[in-house]
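Figure S7 source data.
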Amino acid sequence: MVGKWVTAGVDPDIYIDISEEDDPVKPIIVLEIYNGGPQNLYIKLEAEGPEEWTFTPVELGQFPAGEKKTVTVKNWAERPLPDTELTETITLHLKCYTDSGYTDYLGEVKQSLEVHFIDLEAMSVVDDDDFTEDTEGWSYGVLADDHYVTPPNSLYRVSTVVGSGQELYACETYSRESMVQKSFDIPDASEAYACLYVRFAHGDILPELSVTWCYMTVEVNGKTVLYITETDKWHKVVTPVPVNTTVTITVKAALRVHVETSGTASWDLDIKLWVDHVRVRYR
Ligand SMILES: [Ca+2]
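Tokens for the predicted calcium ion complex:
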């Protein structure tokens, strides 16, 4: 019944590279939940799958009536890292309640998830970018050594959202999207993957401002394969890419601020992004 008005958007395929992954594996999922019903709901995520997995229910909080909300869920599932490639199916249960105590149960929405464990190191190399000595053909960005996955450098780009000395007028908004990009020629093969690490951050928010949005995305040929809001942390993304064509990977970081009180900016407000350890593989 509840499935008539609650929908859960989730990428039905997760790719995990067993050649470089923590043991146990703890996948992170992003759910875009739409509550199209007449009342506010509280939703709890539960899951079931093969016996190797351990699942922990996660209370996702309130989903107001008529609204869409994106949630990133961690620590909901873990499994020992397999040493061979395999694919497993997990069923997500989004249990809907009408109270914050998660007792008045209304119904659930089910969603199936395929977890693909792949071994990138067993595949052929299209490209490896570790930014050891140069920017490896990426558009924009310079080398930086303040954060990296493989020493001594990563690719870095900083963009100014609001400059020091800039006049700020109440109710105005300022936004900036910073990006770096590279294209890869993928051979005619049966499958291909890209794996990279990304990170972003912004400077101290000026006292006159509030943050409207702040996120990072990774796109493959314009399709978003990663959306994150957590700053100051490396995020690993593994994604299939099309074969026998050119694939463009775009990493973006965006910050939008709203001026709450007029004033003069006392310092530069920057949006920063880092990329490192890019591997593109096929077989
Ligand atoms: Ca590096």
